[in-house]
Amino acid sequence: PFLRLLEAQLQDQRREHEEELEALQNQVDAMKEEMEKQQQAFLQTLQLSPEAQVEFGLQQEITRLTNENLDLKELLEKMVKNEKKLKKQLKIYMKKVQDFEALQTIAPEERRQQERNMQVAVQRKEKDFQGMLEYYNEDEPLLIRNLIT
């Protein structure tokens, strides 16, 4: 069993290495193509008049900036989505904190009464369900505190 596990891990590593190698090779090929295109463009610009060279350079820069803008817009969209997700999580956590604070502000006598009710309910549940415990999510901080004390 141990040798099979090691062999499986070795095969997984080999497969990952081969995939990584293939990805790197594709990247190298793409860079070679890009370099060839740039060399051809450079040779063509050398044959142009100085005014045409300036115009060609400006077109290249406009193209580069347009692509960069598109990348930045995509990044902005991802960040906006992430911001919305984080705001939702923040609202959830704020509600939990408010619920917890509300439990803490209950008068001590009421809190003791709730704790007694919880203890009674817990004892019944343990008998009925052999150790299983059912409770409401909003009672969780109180339950934890009771378990600790």
Automatic annotation (TrEMBL):
Record keywords: Coiled coil
Coiled-coil annotated spans: 3-103
Protein known as: MYO5B protein
Source species taxonomy: Eukaryota, Metazoa, Chordata, Craniata, Vertebrata
Gene for this chain: Myo5b_0
